[in-house]
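Our platform keeps sequence and structure together, in a single record for each protein. Such a record has a labelled line for the sequence and another for the backbone structure tokens. Nothing more is needed to write down the fold, since each code stands for a local backbone conformation. For reference, a complete record is included directly beneath this paragraph:
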Amino acid sequence: MNRALRRAWSTRQNRPVHRRCTALAAVAAVSLTLAACGGDGGADQADAARQAAENPQSVTGTVTWWDTSDATNEAPAFRELVARFEQKYPNIDVNYVNVPFDGADDKFKTAAQAGDGAPDVMRADVGWTPTFAALGYLQPLDGTPALKDSDDYLQTPMLSNTYEGKTYGVPEVTDTLGLLYNKEHFAKAGITEPPRTWDDLRTAARKLEQAIPGTTGVFVNADAYFLLPFIYGQGGDVVDMDSQQITIDSPEVTAAIETVRDLTAEGTGATDTSANKYTNMLNGFKAGTTSMIINGPWAVSDVLTGKAFADPENLGVATVPAGPKGQAGPVGGHNLVVYAGSPNLAASYLFVEFINSAESQAYAAAENNTMPTRRSVYERPEIAQNTVISAFRQPLEGAAPRPPAPGAGDLYDIFTPFYERIIGGQVSIADGLRQAQQKAKGAVPGFES
């Protein structure tokens, strides 16, 4: 089967073509064990790094890449980059697999723990990287081509890739949450500037619903990650790094949820606790039946397909409003990481280097309206003149880094069902937060709950 047919078959099935034999799986398991024991990677890893750096065209093999980007709106750009990589390195095949983001972390951990089925390279959420590294599932990239021109990376996105003095990934894309709004709606309601505080947002939402009958002023996603700007506005977080405590049941989180409740009351806004809450939020905004949402740059390409934004200039982007003690969205994004048990380390290093080069980042950012992680990319004309990327620069500059504690990224999934029940009225704030705090016990090793 030739390369094109093989890639098409793999994509159509949405799963990797299984090329590894049992012996390679055993090698992967041994490599993983060495990594988990905290070794320096061994001679094989050093040889792979040396070969990739000194004689890249001699590298052969197959790189399986789990890409967790949006299959419809973002993945096409990455497929194109894969084709460009294979053209540059004809002796390396890429087995591209688009893996749904939800559940991808558990899928990777299951495969890595079994020593069979894990990809060579993965697009991992910034919150997953320290967790994977602590478990011994990632290959350190220090001294490899994967870290080429690392001083070009923005400091904050790079922070999520280091753990105990080693570098386990490179930041592929960064983001934060911002306030997206419909400029035409604002004009009809006589609103001249985006709201600066949550009180301003409440006032604006009420004006919008009065001026445009049938419109929802603001839609707030009932997801724990989307609660973070409200928590930051109260001066809190879901963990306290200084005291090493999980702080889901803190007064700051309580106050944040009270703000959300107020904003989603009848006559102001709405929320949704169903499994389709994110999609429903996005669809309402695209259709012009919702005036404001909180979302990130990853959603912009999809937003611009909606009839309300047939004119892209109608989309407004601003920093999330401020609470009484702060104003920030969380720093999000994705890193490229290499599996510790990969039998194709040299090829994987070259793949990461290529996909995350300044040229590749500029291409993907321009195609997807996403935020690059390399400083130099922002100076390129196609990025500097991109109005969406420019609009998110200000929210990103004031964004709050996510806690670097292994396991902290799992807290959002743990917390969300309890947050949904609180917002849906099935449980009080106090009881819901207490239950979530108990459920989170042990999720962040070394942290009390």
Summary: The first strand starts at residue 61 and ends at 67. DSSP finds 19 helices and 14 strands in the chain. Confidence is low (pLDDT under 50) at residues 1-41. The radius of gyration is 22 Å.
